[in-house]
From TrEMBL:
InterPro entries: MFS, MFS_dom, MFS_trans_sf
This protein's name: MFS transporter
Gene3D superfamilies tied to this protein: MFS general substrate transporter like domains, Multidrug resistance protein D
Annotated PANTHER family: BLR6921 PROTEIN, MAJOR FACILITATOR SUPERFAMILY MULTIDRUG TRANSPORTER MFSC
Transmembrane segments: 51-70, 82-100, 112-132, 144-165, 171-191, 203-222, 234-251, 271-295, 301-323, 335-353, 359-378, 398-418, 424-447
Protein species of origin: Lentzea rhizosphaerae
Bilayer disposition of the protein: Multi-pass membrane protein
Keywords: Cell membrane, Membrane, Transmembrane, Transmembrane helix, Transport
Length: 462
C-alpha cells in the first residue's frame, strides 16, 4: 500500500486523521491552560485556594475515573457516535465554564470537560486503529494523534497564559468553542458511520462500570491528596479505591458481558504497553512536575517562567513523534519504544547528575529527553490498540490511557513526600531513571517482536 492510497473505509485520509487529532487536541488543551489561569479565576470570582484546587481536580478525577467506562461505551455504542457526543459535550462544557458567574457552574463545566475527554480519547484512538488498518497509514495516524496530544499540552501552557493576560481567563474556555464546533461538523462529514449493531449484542455492565469508576476516582483522588499533604488520612480513599477495584475483578468473572473482557487483558501487547506507558508517566512526572518545582526552588523562577523553560521539552516530544510512525514500520514497536525509554533514562540520569549546574547545562539534556520521549506514545498506541479485536478497541484504548493517570498520580505521590523528607532533587530524579529503565527492559521482554502473530496472546505465566 503506497502512501497515497486511502485506508479502508476512508475516502479522505489526511482530513480524517486531522479530525481525530483535533478531537484529542480539543479535550486536552484546557488540562494545562486552566492551571495558568487559576490566579485570575480566583480574582474574578472571589475564590480562595481551597476552592480553586477543585477547578483542576474535578477535571482530573472525571477523566481518570471515567476512561474505562468511556472505552466500553465506545465499543458498545459505536466509535463515531461517541466521538460526536464527546466533542459536543466538551464544546458545551467549555462554553458553560467560560460563561460561569460563580463556582458551581464553573465546576460543572470542568467536570463535563473531563467526562467529554474520557469519552473522546478512547473513541479517537479506537477510530484511528479501525479506520486505518493498513500501513503506512496505521503508523502515520498514531504519529499525527500523538503530535496533537503533545501540542495540546504545549499550547495550553503557552497560549493559555497569553489568552489570560490579553483577553481574560474566560477565553481559556471560550477559545476552544469554535474549534469544537468545526470539529463536530468535520467529524460528521468525514468519519464513516458505525456498522450496525448485531442482534443480541452485549450490554453495559452497570455494576462493573460503577465499581471501576468509583475505584479509579478514589484511587486517583487519594494518591493526589497524599502527594499534597503526606497525611495518612489520604490513604483511606486509596484503600477504598483498591478495595473497589478488587471487588471489580471478582464481579467481572461472574457476569456475561463484563466491562473489561478477559481476552483484552490477556494480550501481551496491551500488558506490555501499559507497563511501558506507566514507566514513561513516572519519568514525565519527574521531568515536568518535579522539574517545575526544581526550577522555582533552585533557580528562582516563577511558575509561569518554569512553564516557559519546560515548553521546549514538550515541543521536542511533539517533533520527535512525527517520524515515529516510519520508525515503527521499519524496526517494530518493541525496538522503537524500548530504545526511546532507554534514552529517556539516560538523559534523565544526566539531568539528575547536574541538578547543581546552571540552566545552560541542564536545558540541552531536558530537550534531549523530550526528543527521546516522542516515539513512546506512537509505538505503544499502535501496538496495544491495533492488537485488540475491533469490538474491544475502545476498552483497550481506555485501559492504556488510564495507565498514565494512575501512574502519574502514584509517581507524584511518591516524589513530593520524598522531596519534603530531604531526599533531594537528584535522588527523586534517579527514582524516575530506575522506573523508566525498568520499563525499557519490560518492553523488550513482554512486547512480541514484529513477526509475532497479533491478537490475544497470553501474558507469560498466565
Amino acid at each position: 500500500m503506497t502512501s497515497t492510497t486511502a485506508p479502508t473505509g476512508v475516502t479522505r485520509p489526511w482530513p480524517t486523521a486531522l479530525v481525530l487529532a483535533t478531537a484529542m487536541f480539543l479535550v486536552l488543551f484546557d488540562s494545562l491552560a486552566v492551571a495558568t489561569a487559576l490566579p485570575h479565576i480566583g480574582e474574578g470570582l472571589g475564590l480562595g485556594p481551597g476552592s480553586l484546587q477543585w477547578v483542576v481536580s474535578l477535571f482530573s478525577l472525571s477523566i481518570g475515573g471515567l476512561l474505562v467506562l468511556g472505552g466500553r461505551l465506545c465499543d458498545l455504542w459505536g466509535r463515531r457516535r461517541m466521538l460526536l457526543t464527546s466533542i459536543a459535550l466538551s464544546t458545551a462544557a467549555c462554553l458553560l465554564a467560560g460563561l460561569a458567574q460563580g463556582l458551581p457552574l464553573l465546576l460543572t463545566g470542568r467536570t463535563l470537560q473531563g467526562v467529554g475527554a474520557a469519552f473522546a480519547i478512547p473513541a479517537a484512538l479506537a477510530s484511528a486503529a479501525t479506520l486505518f488498518p493498513e500501513e503506512p497509514w496505521h503508523s502515520r495516524v498514531f504519529s499525527i494523534v500523538a503530535a496533537s496530544a503533545n501540542s495540546a499540552g504545549l499550547a495550553g501552557a503557552v497560549v493559555g497564559g497569553l489568552l489570560t493576560a490579553e483577553l481574560g481567563w474566560r477565553w481559556v474556555f471560550l477559545a476552544p468553542v469554535p474549534v469544537g464546533a468545526v470539529a463536530l461538523v468535520a467529524t460528521y462529514l468525514l468519519v464513516p458511520p458505525d456498522p450496525p449493531r448485531a442482534s443480541g449484542s452485549a450490554r453495559l455492565d452497570l455494576p462493573g462500570a460503577l465499581l471501576a469508576t468509583g475505584g479509579l476516582v478514589a484511587l486517583i483522588y487519594g494518591v493526589g491528596q497524599f502527594a499534597e499533604t503526606s497525611s495518612p488520612r489520604a490513604l483511606v480513599p486509596v484503600a477504598i479505591g483498591v478495595a473497589l477495584l478488587g471487588v471489580l475483578v471478582v464481579v467481572e468473572r461472574r457476569v456475561a458481558d463484563p466491562l473489561v473482557k478477559p481476552r483484552v487483558v490477556r494480550s501481551r501487547r496491551l500488558v506490555g504497553s501499559c507497563i511501558a506507558f506507566g514507566a514513561h508517566s513516572a519519568a514525565y512526572a519527574a521531568v515536568v512536575v518535579i522539574g517545575s518545582v526544581y526550577l522555582q526552588d533552585v533557580h528562582g523562577l516563577s511558575a509561569a517562567g518554569a512553564g516557559l523553560v519546560l515548553a521546549p521539552v514538550l515541543l521536542a516530544a511533539m517533533i520527535s513523534a512525527v517520524p515515529a510512525g516510519a520508525l515503527t514500520r521499519r524496526f517494530g514497536s518493541r525496538v522503537v519504544v524500548a530504545v526511546s525509554l532507554a534514552l529517556c533514562a539516560g538523559t534523565l540520569a544526566v539531568v539528575a547528575f547536574n541538578t547543581d549546574s546552571s540552566l545552560a547545562v541542564i536545558m540541552p539534556w531536558l530537550i534531549a529527553w523530550g526528543l527521546s520521549a516522542g516515539p513512546v506514545y506512537v509505538g505503544l498506541t499502535r501496538e496495544c490498540i491495533g492488537d485488540a479485536a475491533p469490538e474491544d478497541r475502545g476498552t483497550a484504548s481506555a485501559l492504556f490511557e488510564s495507565t498514565t493517570h494512575v501512574g502519574g498520580a502514584v509517581s507524584i505521590a511518591a516524589y513530593l513526600p520524598l522531596l519534603g523528607a530531604g531526599f533531594g532533587y537528584a535522588g527523586v530524579e534517579f527514582i524516575g531513571v530506575v522506573v523508566v529503565a525498568a520499563g525499557a527492559i519490560a518492553t523488550f521482554l513482554i512486547l512480541p517482536g514484529p513477526g509475532a502473530p497479533r491478537r490475544q496472546e497470553p501474558v507469560p505465566g498466565r
